[in-house]
Design brief:
This protein has about 100 residues and is mainly beta. It has one helix at about 95-100, and strands spanning about 5-10, 15-20, 35-40, 45-50, 55-60, 65-70, 75-80, 85-90. Helix content is about 5%, strand content about 40%.
């Protein structure tokens, strides 16, 4: 994947450093990750399409086409919210992983 023009690499004898010449909105940090970008989509800006190991059970057309993933979450059988979506328990395993999806 080509390096964007606004990134400059400064090489030294011991290491190389990457500097961002134009900061992200709100001066948000940029961090490396192990995401595999498969392509991009132009929807409200240029957005990446990344590989995932999520198992999709079905899709729902509510605010666009959205996947319904399989999960082991314990859900309430009595309360539902808009779109007949279940309400999950506040107590769950892997909360740290879920926090990674928040922007």
């Amino acid at each position: 994947m080509p390096v964007p023009a606004n990134l400059q690499e400064a090489a030294t004898q011991t290491s190389s450093q990457t500097a961002l010449t134009t900061p992200l909105p709100g001066n948000r940090p940029i961090d490396s990750s192990n995401l595999q970008v498969l392509g991009t989509i132009s929807a409200m800006g240029e957005r990446p399409i990344v590989a995932s190991n999520i198992k999709v059970w079905d899709t729902i057309t509510l605010s666009g086409e959205r996947p319904i993933a399989t999960s082991s979450l314990q859900v309430s059988t009595t309360a539902m919210i808009m779109g007949n979506r279940p309400i999950a328990s506040n107590y769950l395993d892997g909360a740290e992983d879920l926090m990674g999806y928040l922007d």
